[in-house]
Structure formats: C-alpha cells, structure tokens
Amino acid sequence: MTSTTFSAQPPQHENAGDTAVVPGMWTARIREAGLRVTKPRLAVLDALERSPHATADEVLSAVRAVMPNITVQSVYVVLHSLTKAGLLRQLDLAHSPARYETRVADNHHHAVCTVCGRIEDVACAVGHAPCLAPTETHGMNIHVADVVYQGVCSDCSAQEADKATARR
C-alpha cells in the first residue's frame, strides 16, 4: 500500500452523494503526484468522492454516466496509476473485491458489517502509523498496520431483532 502525504486533502462533502467534486480541487494534486490531468482521472476521483469504498465495477458504472465510452481497462489503469501515485488507497478486505477511497492523508481504519458489507471509516486510536507495534518485525521497518473491525451494523442488528421477534 502506498502512503504519501499531501498538503491539502480535497474536502469531504457532508453529502458527497449529491455534490460533484470540483475538478480544480484535484488538478493540483494530480500534477503534484507527477501525473497528467485527464478527464478519466478526474471522473474516477469524482466517483470515489461520491461513493467512498467503491469497487472498480462501481467506479466504472459511475464514470460511464459521464463518459459512456470509457473502457473497463481504462478505469483499471486509472485506478492503478492513482493508487501508485498515492492519490487513492486500495482496500483489500476479506471476501470482497478491491475497494478504493480518496481518503489517504490520515491513518484511519475500517469497520465492515459482516451481514450487509457496509464499510465505515474509523479513526485510528493512536493517531499515527503504524498504530500497532508487532511483537516481532522479522527485520522489517514497519510503516503501516491495517486494522479492519468486523461486526454487525445497527441496521442489520435491528433487522435480526425484528426477525427474532416475529418468530415468537
């Protein structure tokens, strides 16, 4: 996982699903990362701002809404280049295809509902990476410790409680 710190993280929109990302917010970051600013890159970043933790297929669907002729390969190439440049973070969660997010400038973790798959960001308890110190490093200089909390979200818990009540 690439870890790059940039001076300015694009603002997280309170209602990201309804608000488009202004391309200018990403233009400087893309250039700072040594990449050319292209419509596919801006469209992928916009899609991930609107829908954090999206899979490549979900990103493709969102990008095709504004660029109908974009290919699957193009989206994968953009996701790879933006991840390698540190503008995206790839999440590799158990039983799930890779997911991507634009939140890369902090050390945070994820809570995953094992019933519905909902993913939420969780602030690091320690506040810096790595947040866990291994008992044995095997000679490695540890930079990151990924923490994934697994459980059942409140919506799924409520549904399970309703089902239990209905069975009585």
Automatic annotation (TrEMBL):
Pfam families the UniProt entry points to: FUR
Subcellular localization(s) per the UniProt record: Cytoplasm
SUPFAM superfamilies, per database record: Winged helix' DNA-binding domain
InterPro entries assigned to the protein according to its UniProt record, in alphabetical order: FUR (IPR002481), Fur_C (IPR043135), WH-like_DNA-bd_sf (IPR036388), WH_DNA-bd_sf (IPR036390)
Superkingdom of origin: Bacteria
Predominant location category: cytoplasm
Protein name: Fur family transcriptional regulator FurA3
Organism: Kocuria gwangalliensis
Source taxonomy: Bacteria, Bacillati, Actinomycetota, Actinomycetes, Micrococcales
